[in-house]
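Morning run. Coffee first, then this:
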Amino acid sequence: MPLLHDPQASPASPIGFENFLAIDIRVGTILAADPFPEARKPAFKLKIDFGPGVGVKRSSAQITRLYTLESLVGRQVAAVVNFPPRQIGTFMSEVLTLGLADENGDVVLMGPDRAVPNGARLF
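And here it is:
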């Protein structure tokens, strides 16, 4: 299986539109960002507000190379909100915060280029 962040990799196998709709990607605003020194790989703990429909969720994100804790608060990000929670060390991550690898393999967060309501769904 090729690396997920390999820009030279071929596209994944085709899926039906119903499979795409099953992935619930929403926008939320980061309320808090904290260090996560217990993580195996450098990461931050994020608390993200996805609005009244989804609520406030927690996420572990390996974004320490390009972001500071201070720069994250107030930023809108995209996340998959309907994956099952995942235990990461001592932390329960409830959503998968989305990003893309840059040329060095560092994670660049995905988010809208203009403010949108928290909970807005990707379509």
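The longest strand covers residues 25-35. Good start to the day.
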